[in-house]
Amino acid sequence: MNKVAVAKGDGIGPEIMEAVLKIFNAANVPLEYEYVDMGKWVFDKGYSNGMTPAAQQTIESLGILFKGPMETPKGKGVKSVNVTARKTWNTYANKRVFQTLHGVDTVFSKAGIPIDITVVRENIEDTYGGIEHMLTHDVALSRRFITQPGSMQVIKYAFEMAKKKGTRRITCGHKANIMKLTDGLFLQTFYDVAKDYPELKADDIIVDDLCMKLVTRPDQFDVVVLTNLQGDIVSDLCAGLVGGLGFAPSANIGDHISIFEAVHGTAPDIMGKNIANPTALLLSGLALLRHIGLMESAATIENALLYTLEQGVHTGDFGDKAVQSLNTTEFSEAIIANFGKVPENNPKPMLENQPITPTVFKLDKNPMLENSENINETIIGVDMFIESNEQPMVIAEKCLQHTFGLFKLVTISNRGTQVWPTGSMYTNLVNTYACRFESVGEVSVTQTDIIELYRHLAQDFKICSTELLNVWDGKKAYSLAAGQ
Ligand code: NAD
């Protein structure tokens, strides 16, 4: 029998996990559960990543984790165990399905507008790297990594999933008009992958326009793929379209290990009361069953759930207030009592179980993801981020004293807006400037040349950060300042 790791989680986690596993057991789902120690209480025991070494070992050997929501202790400098788990095991694709559920009233269900949107969110990179530094007391910097191989993994997954699902349309949401290199790379990768799927209509949309269209015409979208932060926001928006977080499941898919959990958190305001809605965790569990090929059990349980919702049965967080709500246990028992019933709307077909291909095998080194394009690379300069509260002209004069010979000062910007050699007195300043030095004639320079420049500038300024200016196949691999 298949075995999966189960972490009950914090807050309402144990209550809703118990309800879901009760439903699984009643349906004779052929699964065994190995409970692992993860969550706030594990942090409190002194494990700084929120899980015990034994839990990590079990999850890495079983390959599937079914988890309840977990709390991140506040103000202790520890990182979220939820994010750590997704990143450590490279679950690069976060798939969240949002479908109209009959019995869960929304403005769209009342208007007869059907919703069936799958959001695929990149799950490892972006600002979720959490790589942040205070450059000065006034200025914080977050590094936003978007990589070609990382984008490729999640976008390929999205296209493959869309093809299997028989989707009409796959859409890339982005902000490449502003973040030309990071979101531009994600978008380019999307269209590179799209060439291998001519049968799918692939298009893109700027993320703000996407939000507006999702709340006006959600039925126009099928599969939407986004970078991490934008995907997080857009998927909560989609949860709102179908009735809220109580109905939002989530699957974190990796090549070896995958994690299934609800989108919502630990709901500390209702914990211990046995009133939480287990639907989101149940839907996440059904995604788990389908992921490992248990199609029949998934369809039986989902049909019973949909039938139950159609009958107006509900927990306290949704449904008709005139109809008495059920508690978590009663709600799960109502679903069990409806096994074998088929809903009037969107009944799930009884697909055959599929053989499972094991995804976990022992790795002897960390996989290196690399795009092996052969390109001509040169460094032609450097951006020096300096701390100063002086005016741009004064900074330029000091910089120019150090730029004899190889380098010339090209531009000085403040929060991305050029303030030297030209600019406006109306541009507000903060105490971090980016001073861009390029080589005279844009010839190739070495890192030693840059260290020499650094040594000189450090006599006048505190240098908070540096970035090399790369040119690849004659193309600048860096952005220009606004107004440059
Ligand atoms: P939350 O999702 O826990 O709660 C938001 C609101 O939704 C609350 O009013 C809550 O009662 C309600 N709610 C959530 N799930 C519900 C359910 N199943 N049934 C009925 N009502 C439900 O968000 P929060 O309050 O911002 O976060 C609480 C904690 O959860 C924080 O520590 C946060 O870090 C953590 N969190 C964990 C995860 C995860 O484990 N993946 C995700 C989000 C938040």
Automatic annotation (TrEMBL):
<keyword id="KW-0521">NADP</keyword>
<dbReference type="GO" id="GO:0006099">
    <property type="term" value="P:tricarboxylic acid cycle"/>
</dbReference>
<dbReference type="GO" id="GO:0004450">
    <property type="term" value="F:isocitrate dehydrogenase (NADP+) activity"/>
</dbReference>
<dbReference type="InterPro" id="IPR040978">
    <property type="entry name" value="Isocitrate_DH_TT1725_C"/>
</dbReference>
<feature type="domain" description="Isopropylmalate dehydrogenase-like">
    <location>
        <begin position="3"/>
        <end position="335"/>
    </location>
</feature>
<dbReference type="Pfam" id="PF18324">
    <property type="entry name" value="Isocitrate_DH_C_bact"/>
</dbReference>
<comment type="subunit">
    <text>Homodimer.</text>
</comment>
<keyword id="KW-0560">Oxidoreductase</keyword>
<dbReference type="GO" id="GO:0006102">
    <property type="term" value="P:isocitrate metabolic process"/>
</dbReference>
<keyword id="KW-0460">Magnesium</keyword>
<keyword id="KW-0816">Tricarboxylic acid cycle</keyword>
<keyword id="KW-0479">Metal-binding</keyword>
<dbReference type="GO" id="GO:0004449">
    <property type="term" value="F:isocitrate dehydrogenase (NAD+) activity"/>
</dbReference>
<dbReference type="Pfam" id="PF00180">
    <property type="entry name" value="Iso_dh"/>
</dbReference>
<dbReference type="GO" id="GO:0006097">
    <property type="term" value="P:glyoxylate cycle"/>
</dbReference>
<keyword id="KW-0464">Manganese</keyword>
<protein>
    <recommendedName>
        <fullName>Isocitrate dehydrogenase [NADP]</fullName>
        <ecNumber>1.1.1.42</ecNumber>
    </recommendedName>
</protein>
<keyword id="KW-0329">Glyoxylate bypass</keyword>
<dbReference type="InterPro" id="IPR024084">
    <property type="entry name" value="IsoPropMal-DH-like_dom"/>
</dbReference>
<comment type="function">
    <text>Catalyzes the oxidative decarboxylation of isocitrate to 2-oxoglutarate and carbon dioxide with the concomitant reduction of NADP(+).</text>
</comment>
<dbReference type="GO" id="GO:0046872">
    <property type="term" value="F:metal ion binding"/>
</dbReference>
<dbReference type="InterPro" id="IPR046997">
    <property type="entry name" value="Isocitrate_DH_TT1725_C_sf"/>
</dbReference>
<comment type="similarity">
    <text>Belongs to the isocitrate and isopropylmalate dehydrogenases family.</text>
</comment>
